[in-house]
Amino acid sequence: MASTTTTRPRPGPDRPKAGVSAHRRGLRPDRTREGLAGYIFLSPWLLGLMGITAIPMLMSLYLSFTDYDILSTWSEIEWVGLANYRRMFGDDPSYWHAVQVTATFALIAVPLKLAAALGVALLLNRERRGVGLFRGLFYLPSLLGGSVALAIVWLNIFNRDGAFNGFLGLFGIEGEPWANDPDWALETLMVLAIWQFGAPMVIFLAGLKQVPTELYEAASVDGAGPVRKFLSITLPMLSPVIFFNLVLETINGFQGFTSAFVLSGGTGGPVDSTLMYTLNLYIKGFTDYEMGYASAMAWVFLVFIGVITVVLFSTGRFWVHYSDGDDNS
Amino acid sequence: MNVKSAGRLAVLLVLLGIVLYPLIWMLGTSFKSQTEILSNSSAWPQAWTPGNYSEGWTHFDVSMGRFFFNSALVSLLTVVGNALSCLLAAYAFARLRFRARRLWFAVMIGTLLLPSHVLIVPQFILFRTFDWVGGPFPYMPLLVPQFLATEAFFVFLMVQFMRGIPRELDEAAKIDGCSPYGVFRHVILPLSRPALVTTAIFSFIWTWNDFFRQLVYLSDLDKYTVPVALTLFIDSTGQSAVGPMFAMSVLSLLPVFLFFVAFQRMLVEGINTSGLKG
C-alpha cells in the first residue's frame, strides 16, 4: 500500500510538528493494514452491490428506453426513447388499473392492520400472565401468512363452500364466492394482509413497555380518564414506533405479490380486480416477455416508493414525538 | 377490577380464536375426505382420513419429497450464505476504519428499502447471459446474491449487534498481537452467535416461504421448490385435489412452524424476566 496515504487527512497546521509526525509514522502501517482489511471484509458485499444491485439497476434504466424482449440479442435491441413511459402513462389502461388496485389495497389494508396491531397490543400490555403465549400465537400468522400455502387456504376459506360462508350460514346468511367475485376479491386479500397484524403488534408491545409508568400515575393524580391517557400519553409516546411500523407496512403493502398471484392463478383476475402492481410487472415481464416495458414499470415503481418514503418522513416531523426532547416532564 | 380483567381476557381469547381459526381449519380440512370437503365447512372432520397426505405426496410426476429436498437445499444454503457474507460486511462496518466507510454504510442503508421486484428483470437477464437460469444447477440465481450480502437487513442487524460488543475486547486482542483478522476470528465471531442465530432463523423462514424469485427462476418440474409446486395444485385441478392440496400446504408450513415453536420459547423467556420487574 502507498505509504503516503493516511486514512484521515488533517488540516495543515499540525503537519510540521516532528513529534506528531513521528507518532503518526508509528500508526500508519496499522492504519493502512486496517484499511486494507476493511475492504477485504467488505469485498463480498461490494461485489454484490455492484453485480447484483447497481449494474442491474443501470441495465434496467437503459432497457426501459428499449423494446427489449427476452428473445432478442443485444444487437437487436432497439432504442425507443420514452415510448414505454408514454405507453404507461398514456395508453395502457391496465397499468392505471393496477396502480389503482395497489393504492386501494395499501390505503385500506395498512391502516386497518396497524389499528388491529395497536388494539391487541394495548389489550396484551395490560395482561400479566400468559402474555408470552398470546404474543407468540398472535405473531404466528405473520410468520406463515406470506406463503403460497396460506394463500391457497385463504382462497378456499372465501370460496362458495368455504369456512367463511359456513360461518355466515350459522346466521342464515347466504354468502358469495368472495374470492371469485370481482367486487370482493381484493377485500379477500386485504383480510389476509390484516390477519398478519402480529409482526407490528410485537413491535408495538415492545414500544408500550418503554412508556414510563410515572406518566400514567401523574395523569391519574390529575384526574385523567383512560381515553385521555391514551390520547395524551400513549399515542405521543408511541409515535416513533407507529411511524416505524407505518413506513415498513406501507412499503410492504405496495409490494404484495404472492397472495394476489395465487388467488387469481397468476392473472390478476377476476376481471383484473387483484392486479397488484408487482403482479402486473411480472405478467408484462415474464408472461408477455415485454422486458423493456417491465423495466420502465419497475423504475416508476422505485421512484414511487422513494416518494412515498420521503412524504412519510416529511410528515413525520409534525406528529412523531421523540422523547429525548425536553418537552415531557 | 376483576370483572374488567376477566372481560379483557375473554376478548383476547375470542380474538385469538378468530386469528387461529384459518390455521385450524386448514389442518382439519386436510384430513377430510373429498366428499366431506364439499359438505362440511367446519374445521372438525366427521371422519379423519390421512389419505390426502399420501395422495398429495405422489400427486405429480415428481414426488413431493423432491420438492421438499429442493426447498431445504435452497433454504439451508441461503442460511449459510447470509450468515457468512453478512457477518463479514458487518464486521467491516462496525469495527474497521477504511476509506469511504460512511459512504458505503449509507449506500447499504439505502438498499434496505429497495424493493426486490425492481431488480428482477435485469437480474434475470444478467443471470441468463451467465447461463445460470435453467442451467444444471438452476439455484445459482437464488443463491449467489445471498453469498454476496445483498440482504442488507441482516448486515444492518449484525452491525447493530456488534456495536454492543465492548471495544475493550478488541483492544485487548490487539495488544496481544491480533490483526484485524485475528480480532474477527477470536473476538467478534464467537461473540456474534446470537446475531447469527437470529439471521439463520429469519433467512431460513423467509427463503422457505419465498415465492416470487423461485417462480421466476425455476422452470423444470424436478427442480421446483415447494411453493412453486403448490401452485400446480391450483392450476391442475377443479375441486378434486383440494384435499391433497391442503395436506401438502400443511406439510409445507411444518418447518416454519417448528422454527416458531423453538423461537417461541426464547420469546417467552424474555417476557418472564421482564415480567418479574413489572
Automatic annotation (TrEMBL), chain A:
Residues 1-25 are annotated as: Disordered. The chain crosses the membrane at residues 36-65, 95-124, 136-157, 188-208, 229-248, 291-313. Pfam families: BPD_transp_1. PROSITE patterns: ABC_TM1 (PS50928). InterPro entries: ABC_transporter_permease (IPR051393), MetI-like (IPR000515), MetI-like_sf (IPR035906). GO terms for biological process: transmembrane transport. CDD domains: TM_PBP2. It is a multi-pass membrane protein. Residues 99-312 form the ABC transmembrane type-1 domain. It is found in: Cell membrane. The keyword Transmembrane applies. Keywords: Cell membrane, Membrane, Transmembrane, Transmembrane helix, Transport. The keyword Transmembrane applies. SUPFAM superfamilies: MetI-like. One of its GO terms (cellular component) is plasma membrane. Belongs to the binding-protein-dependent transport system permease family. This is Sugar ABC transporter permease. It comes from Virgisporangium aliadipatigenens.
UniProtKB/TrEMBL annotation, chain B:
Its main location: membrane. Keywords: Cell membrane, Membrane, Transmembrane, Transmembrane helix, Transport. PROSITE patterns: ABC_TM1 (PS50928). Gene3D superfamilies: MetI-like. It is a multi-pass membrane protein. GO terms for cellular component: plasma membrane. It is found in: Cell membrane. The chain crosses the membrane at residues 9-28, 67-91, 103-127, 139-162, 183-208, 241-263. Pfam families: BPD_transp_1. InterPro entries: MetI-like, MetI-like_sf. The keyword Cell membrane applies. Residues 68-263 form the ABC transmembrane type-1 domain. GO terms for biological process: transmembrane transport. Belongs to the binding-protein-dependent transport system permease family. PANTHER family: ABC TRANSPORTER PERMEASE PROTEIN MG189-RELATED-RELATED, ABC TRANSPORTER PERMEASE PROTEIN YESQ-RELATED. This is Sugar ABC transporter permease.
